[in-house]
User: Fold these one by one.
Assistant:
Number 1:
Amino acid sequence: MKPIIYITQKLPEQAVAKLRDSYEVRMWHDDQTAAPREELLEQVKEAHALWTMLSDTIDRPVFEAAPNLKIISNLAVGYNNIDLDAAHEYGVMVTNTPEVLTETTADLTFALLLATARRIVEADQTVRSGEWKSWTPMGMTGQNVGGATLGIIGMGRIGEAVARRGQGFGMNVLYHNRTRKSLEDVKYAALDELLQTADFVVLLTPLTKETKGMIGERELSLMKETACLINVARGGVVEEAALYEALKAKKIWGAGLDVFEQEPVPTDHPLLTLPNVTVLPHIGSATVQTRLAMMEMNAEAIAACLEGRSVQNRVC
């Protein structure tokens, strides 16, 4: 009997084809939504490997229901959707997909920064709705990017890639990180100093117990009234109610959000009512080339584990 791999969302056939000869591949039929909780718990009863999405909640009951499970490979760099303590307790390996999405996510981060600064989405909607009547001296005015100060919170691989893009725009780059880096023309700053100085505050830190809610009312009050907050990290890093109040009162100029605390974000979320917020559906790594490369990493990790070979990109 072939080992069983369960995939929680439908993936392109080219991503899973090479696994089919050696393994029984079972896959949820929908490429828009992940397998329901009941389906996941049923399928893991026999699974030797679980290929998961960031939207899946892989908690203790999943491990308890999976006596044969050897590996979980997560289609993301982040893995806050997986209970690592339970994985360790049950002897289940966990892998992610770092590095391959660094440049792609940095591109998206900077695109979101530009769109927020120059009100691109708002301007597009003005044209499409017929509201654009004529050129006006202060119509759709935004904020300068070139020569502005970029503050990056979380200076990992993606942070460094965003810094390089900022330097290409002639920006002054500050960063805040747990550990200091030796980076050319990039200056370390304490968190409060960065918030007070930066014209664009970019969040790239992972979601941990320490970073949850790290940007709240106090931190937002330190930012310039002309500053923009860009979050491509995790929604939980920001206190969304405080962000809404700061934006509504124009205590900061704008926000660009690729992530939310609850995803998909409810359509009645207060932040969606504000014109000075640009929102995206968590697409930091969403290019065809990058997503396929991430899937290849997942497939290789699963095969390596089940074949007893060395496994790359382990987080547990």
Number 2:
Amino acid sequence: MPQCSIVIRAYNEEEHIGRLLSGIMQQTVQNVEIILIDSGSTDATVSIASRYPIKLLSIRPEEFSFGRSLNLGCQAAAGEFIVIVSAHVYPVHRDWLAHLLQPFQNPQIGLVYGKQRGNATTQYAEHQIFARWFPEESNPNQEFPFCNNANAAIRRPLWQQLPYDESLTGLEDLDWAKRAMALGYNVAYQAEAEIIHVHNETAQQTYNRYRREAIALKQIYPQEHFYLGDFVRLLTANISNDYYHAWRDRVLARNLWAITRFRLLQLWGTYRGFVQHGPVTSQLKQTFYYPRQRQSTADLTAESRINRPLVNYHLFEQRSHDSIE
């Protein structure tokens, strides 16, 4: 039986999936199985992934939700632990997986999530979000139910008790953490388990992401509200904070408009999600789950300030170049 099963959700990820799988194959933890759930990719995602030792599962686009896709992958998993990663992330260090699994030595830990950082094409405002949500210091016993399934791990027996909510339009990870904590399990944040999260979104995709997550948050926490006054207050506070940090970093001039636009899209999407009434239609699901392709990125840079073995992506880059030629 594998020590862990790695579940990856993918849709049109030909640019990123090979890099992630290459990084997984170089991990110090080798007793793993890899499960890819493809939700109707029309590009080379499946053919690229098939070059690696994966178990391929498919879900029809009209049946997709984040929770349903995860439940399908978890049901097929054989490992004691289930590692969940996005198809557009990649590990920085060869001991990423070892660090992500380490907190499970404590039987009270039900869920672990790791650090995320952006790459050179990441929006400045999103770099600030990553730094705030995923700090440099680990927390072995988090007091609030936050996590992120771009880089997380759970106990399979606990998932069998608590399958993911398939009705949510996002934040299925937060909802699962909330229910696991209600059963007495702890959530651990592991800063040493670092991945690079490539979020190369269009303006519409950013807006849609925060809108669907707000719809989900309203379902998870019905008592929560987000009024127009909250939009104005948080927009002012976040833009001011980003401007300050960009000024300190001496990059304000070139990021001024990008910061403003990102925060407008983020918080207006959040507001629109909270005021959404009625069911989520199939047309809206299509907008949320199957947007236009992300813009291209070729940056593979990931720096480390500590002396740990880095994943070597040069061979992957060379193979990708050769296949294009």
Number 3:
Amino acid sequence: MSKMDAKPLISGISKPVSQLALGSAFYNVDSKEEWFDILDYYIKVGGTIVDTARAYSTSEEVIGLWMEARSMRERTIIQTKCGITADGYLPAENFPQVVREELTTSLRTLRTDYIDVYLLHRDNQEMPVAEVLEPLNREIDNGRIHAFGASNWEYRRLTEANEYAYKHGIKSFAVVSNNISLAHPTAAFYKGLVSTDKTGEHWHEETGIPLIPWSSQARGFFTGRYTPQMRDDFALTASELDSFTSKMLKVYGTDENFERLARAKELGERKRRYTAVEVALAWLLHKPFPIVPIVGVHNREELASCVKALALTLTEAEIRWLNLET
């Protein structure tokens, strides 16, 4: 059985960080035993970091129950999120109170007295970075969080926040959780989402701050369940395609992305029994900066496939080919 390596990676966190983080956005307490099994297997294959959020239904509750039942709190890095309005922005009004109250709820739900990594789920560019950073620093001083990060923040804002923190001698973002994958989205899948572009990649190289990307496998695009024929067949009405499929085709269904899919499939076959999904994940793991992709899996087999991708080595020429550069 393949296993992940783990090493210290996040400033403020002494626990080792595994090569893949486990996503839990769809966990539901009504089927908690199903998710307990995946969490158990994730630990068995060397996983250490579990991603969740206040906004993810009963995900925090499932993880809290699992950690309590398995006595796993000190072996697990919990990354949860706060701060998202219905409009897809960080709430500016009473922000310190929002942080305090959402964190209190997360701690209670997760059955713990601290959060390892606390992420802001969105940004609000009308808020000065000082107003964002100061409440988070207070929670570090109180011991309720050990590090904090930003999800769906533009890199200009991240630079501004880090510069402010440096000048004022306070903590700043220890991690970033934006989207990146081999498939390039044409637009944000939901309002307020941010993807890491080439500028962002250079930022991570220069700062050494880890990227913990969501939708690292492009929401299942590389499974092959979405095709150019589905996109181009005008006989398929909106009622015949579910809303998620329609959105996937709109956001990811470009000729370039379908070519990336075809090349990932071809390369996987040449590499002997690797799938396009595994090739796409391996491509991400070859980035020249610290990166811990979040993988959302529904069973042990899918998780084993993700772990298998860790053993796949790609050459620079193969990476350029997947990038459509050659």
Number 4:
Amino acid sequence: MLQPIPRRVIDFHAHFVVPGARSEAWARWEEEYAAQFGRAKLELWRERQRKNIAARWRGLADAEDRVQSEEEAVARWKQQVDVHGLNAIVFLTGGGNDRLSRIVRQYPGRFIGFAHHDPFAPNAADELERAVTELGLRGYKVLAPVLSKPVDDPAAFPVWETAERLGIPVLIHFGILGGGGGIAGADNCNPLRLERVAQGFPGVPFVIPHFGAGYMRELLLLCWSCPNVHVDTSGSLQWMRWVPGDMTLRSVLRTFLESVGPERILFGTDSSALPRGFIRMYYDELQRACWSLNVPEEHQDLIFYGNAARLLRLPPETAWKPGEGTAAAMAVAAAVGEGGPRA
């Protein structure tokens, strides 16, 4: 039977999938594509993406076709948190700010939610303020490649000012987006577009996921320029196959440890659909890489837990204690066949 992870862990990068929900910016990008090239080509592009993504899921279970209720999905995600022994999981998206707030409030301290809306939308700064102060969300997520303007356009400065005043982390996806056949060369794919913003708002801890998603060199330079920029380890890291050089998770982790240091690296999985749930494989692979590099235990604790807890300003009492609720959760999971992905 699957055992809980024997260490403190916060998954800083997950998504609560809501059927039919799309990022505002991503939906707008698709509409612009359809207006320029036609809806038939958009559907062809979508279908090719689905096939490319499915071929690269490394043997993990496919997402379920059936539409489950929100209540069922919440319960199953809580099982995942308990079965794997996670201190907390951060849902960066979840069908809109109001819906995600409703979801994470059901398990405060274990479920954490981020706001996710277009920084160039009207009243975007006010919406971020509302999401944090009224809805209880604890950060802000942005998909840079599909934004309508450069990420450093002054039109978004009120959003960054709000984030700085509220003291929340901002996670911005740069790099390739959408799986094979997705977006790779948009102006906002380059993390260096954030340099002016990160330097202008030094009180904002920015987090760039997936080790830069194909823009690793640019991310390293951004981290050199801006000490408030962090990285996360999330995702399948398939981008390593598409860039020159013999890259592995071990070699990439070593590079970031030797440059930005363990204080600016956060563990994440990019887990989303059920029945996959929490992708334990990604934790196992990162743990093995840490061991093979002889990363000191105190540095591993920062990567897997401490850095996320610090950025999220979590109180000490949210820490999960070994054995707390685990036996019952594992029994329930076994009964429904929810033992986790193949690792």
